[in-house]
Prior knowledge:
Elements: H1 3-31, H2 33-57, H3 62-111, H4 121-135, H5 137-181, H6 185-226, H7 232-242, H8 249-265, H9 267-293, H10 301-338, H11 341-346
Helix pairs in contact: 2-3, 2-5, 2-6, 3-8, 5-6, 6-7, 6-9, 6-10, 7-8, 8-9
Amino acid sequence: xxxxxxAAAGWAWRLLVLGVVAxxxxxxxxxxxxxxxxxxxGLVITALLRPVADRFGxxxxxxxAVLCAFVLVALALAxxxxxxxxxxxxxxxxxxxxxxxxxxRLEHWLExxxxxxxxxxxxxxQKKINSFVSAHRSTLLQSALSGATRAVEILxxxxxxxxxxxxxxxxxxxxxxxxxxxxxxxxxxxxxxxxQAAWRTLSGYIRGIxxxxxxxxVLVGIALFILRVPLAAPLAVLEFVAAxxxxxxxxxxxxxxxxxxxxxxxxxxxxxxxxxxxxIGQIEGHVLxxxxxxxxxxxxPVVIAISVIAGxxxxxxxGAVLAVPAVSVVWAVIQALRGPRADQDAA
Length: 347
């Protein structure tokens, strides 16, 4: 048998085994998706609160320090949400009237050159939408009930993630050392080095993506405020949340903002907001990510794009969010286990 054929056969069965393992892993992740999301949420909270708890731990015992960190962040978050709700409630009546005027301006603009849309087309479309809602009321009600069930599931996942984060912040190292102590002595060093590399990469990624998302949100909020687009603050918060999905999150959020601008301020403002998608995308891709994320994640943009698409295919929006940090952690662990111990100790 030729050597090339033997080598190809060897690679083939090894790749087949890796494919079966990968399929099994993705099946388990999909089966226990809620638990995976809760643990990831707990790690996110831990990455944010651990430095705060360490600062408090310098002047008080560990348990009160963890409690103070959680209370401080909870108060700050409650204050921000309260202010956001106040802004939405205050601007809602004005936004409703602006939407009505905006629909009239949009209809008048579409009736002119070069579109020449038939007069009353938008009014007819609105009637069709109302008729569809009336005809499918039971289906929409079932969807609403399904959404309520989903909301309960989200609250359960959030509670579990918060519960896990309390123990991660308080004694995460001891938990990891305990698991390592159950391994054979020859495997403990690799376990510890891999864990340190994984946590360093994951925490760095989480903090970096939060900085990138916050910067995007500030830029979007300032631009929408200057353009006098209603609900600028809530739309900036939407941009902050969407930025956690690499590559596609920010454009989707800005598309929503452009729709609001089109309905309230007219097509010119909407075009300007659409232009922001390009500008902020360039700033994020060529300035923020290289400066902020390079020290935490060293992945090629092609790898990031493939990871996001593969994650979304496997687990939907959850997979798109988890793909990049998961690939980054795996790569960091591989690099840590390949390198000599002295290099890790020096790092």
